[in-house]
Amino acid sequence: MAFRKKIFEMDGLKIEYSPLSVKQTEDVMSRKRPTDDIPAAERLEFFRKWNRDVLCFGLNNAAGTDEWTPEKLNTDLDPVVYDELEMAILRMTKLVKNETPAVGESAAATL
Question: What predicted TM-score, i.e. pTM, was given to this entire model?
Fold first, then answer.
């Protein structure tokens, strides 16, 4: 599959990423969000998995492989890069508003 690609840069780190496919977007958006009556630990795990999937989809789409796994995310990305890169992927997929570029994005790179 051919995906649009962008480069995320932060403090010398460069990572190529792509948007989610329509199928991947439907997958993550169709998941039933936990309600407030669900224990906090279960809600937290839901959102952790959701975030990991968005990152893995976007990074693997750019790489053309399944190289990025939840384990690789946890060992290769620090918390700041993790959050900013996820927002960049969400912006590129149009799942969040594109008002302000993420730290690793240049203003010209936004849609």
Answer: 0.83
